[in-house]
Design brief:
With 303 residues, the chain is an alpha+beta fold. The chain contains 13 helices and 9 strands. It has 2 domains: 166 residues, Beta Polymerase, domain 2 (2-Layer Sandwich); 87 residues, no CATH class. β6 and β7 form a beta hairpin. The two termini are 18 Å apart.
């Protein structure tokens, strides 16, 4: 992809930016002030439409048979770790970027249209009303899916099949920057911590979230606010290390660290860049991303 093509795509992308396509809805719905349906979490398993079940199961069978490296993420993995269900019209899979062309081959055989929605993090396949999201990184270009993510994943049953499920550490790390005005995964992170904090590989999570440890700290503080009785599930050493680092950063601010608001929400912090002269860290990371997805085995252009 040429530099000019990536710039054009970036401009288009910022007009409709979101970390993850907000297609999930729960078995019960509430209404926002603006009349928008919002998901309500539940422990009750959704009643899957037969065609959805058949669609997702066929995808898993095909990818497993072709030995494509992947782990189930999204709503299915979230339930696996927390016991919380969501209905969904898509199946989220994490996959290393270099495995996407082979995955597309399999999905085309299953009758899907395939396309690159965003070269940094999202390839998609569609069949009728159902989608498969192949997630290769984090939308603000701060983290890339690696083979180790798949190697660390444990097998469990999803849709009646044994397949790998994204580990809790990688799932938390991938949600830390879902911080948009229109989509915030703080509740997901809090629920994952409630379920898994006492058994997490904290060294692994710390490694995944460097150099953005402040964002992890923010989510941990939010978790402690939401679940004060569970705050001790986070090891004392983690609290001490992050608190000391935060206190030091406030006492002696580092002047050469750039403005990072666009990593949190490029729309809401657009004024900082466009009118106040702040650095657009998100754009710089996106334009220089080392593992962009290529248009290989695609059958259509992005939506």
């Amino acid at each position: 992809m040429t530099v000019r093509a990536r710039q054009v795509l970036l401009i288009s992308r910022e007009a409709n930016f979101s970390m993850l396509t907000p297609s999930n809805s729960a078995s019960k719905l509430s209404m926002s002030d603006g009349g928008t349906e919002l998901p309500v979490t539940s422990s009750k398993e959704p009643v899957w439409a037969p065609e959805a079940y058949e669609c997702y199961q066929g995808v898993l069978k095909g990818l497993l048979a072709a030995d494509v490296p992947f782990a189930v993420s999204g709503g299915f993995a979230f339930h696996n770790h927390t016991g919380i269900w969501r209905t969904t019209k898509d199946l989220d899979l994490v996959i290393p970027p270099d495995a996407v062309p082979r995955a597309f081959e399999v999905l085309i055989q299953e009758g899907f249209e395939t396309y690159i929605q965003d070269p940094v993090w999202l390839a998609k396949a569609r069949r009728g009303d159902y989608f498969v999201d192949l997630i290769t990184g984090v939308g603000n270009a701060t983290l890339t899916v690696e083979q180790l993510w798949i190697d660390r994943a444990q097998e469990d049953e999803v849709l009646g099949m044994r397949c790998k499920v994204l580990p809790a550490e990688e799932m938390i790390a991938s949600k830390l920057f879902v911080t948009r005005r229109e989509r915030f995964d703080g509740a997901d992170t809090a629920h994952l911590l409630r379920a898994c904090a006492a058994s997490l590989d904290w060294d692994r999570l710390r490694k995944l979230t460097e150099p953005h440890w402040q964002v992890l700290y923010w989510h941990l503080v939010l978790f402690a606010y939401i679940y004060p009785a569970n705050a001790a599930d986070v090891p004392p050493g983690i609290w001490r290390e992050l608190t000391e680092s935060f206190n030091q950063s406030v006492a002696a601010p580092t002047q050469d660290v750039p403005f990072r608001g666009t990593l949190i929400d490029p729309k809401m912090f657009a004024i900082d860049v466009n009118e106040w002269g702040e650095q657009d860290t998100y754009r710089e990371l996106w334009e220089n991303y080392p593992h962009p997805l290529e248009e290989t085995n695609t059958t259509r252009s992005k939506e």
